[in-house]
Design goal:
The protein is mainly alpha-helical and 130 residues long. The chain is built from five helices and no strands. It starts with a helix and ends with a helix.
């Protein structure tokens, strides 16, 4: 639970910062007509709960569990997961363009790698204090 919460504390501010600035402008300019005025909070909570569980199970739970291995495995998990979303949209949505695919996948890799590696470091620090 400490690793999960530590990863959450890292990922949420990073992702909210991206989605509130660069991501918001990028998506608005390409698919603004498809976007809601206010996000569906229940869907966002479910995404973060599941995605963070995936990071903890498939990255932080992998051996060796250290910041450098987590950085690499987090980037790979981000690549796989964000590619699923971005490339599926590219395949089926008229307005979805490569100019959305590349930055979305890159951001997924960065935020997942950061959350996995820094979350593990934060959890280790907290556990050493208990």
């Amino acid at each position: 639970m400490i690793v999960y919460l530590s990863t959450l504390v890292i990922m949420l501010p990073l992702d909210f910062a991206f989605l509130g600035t660069v991501g918001k402008k990028m998506y608005q300019s390409h698919i603004g007509g498809l976007m809601l005025d206010t996000p569906r909070v229940s869907a966002a909570i479910l995404f973060y709960a599941l995605y963070l569980a995936g990071i903890v199970v498939f990255v932080n739970g992998a051996h060796p569990a250290n910041w450098s291995a987590n950085l690499l495995l987090g980037a790979l998990l981000g690549l796989f997961c964000y590619s699923t979303f971005a490339l599926t949209n590219m395949a089926i949505l008229k307005q979805w363009q490569w100019s959305l695919v590349i930055p979305d996948i890159a951001w997924g890799m960065v935020v997942t790698a950061a959350a996995a590696s820094l979350g593990e470091l934060l959890a280790g620090w907290i556990i050493s204090r208990i």
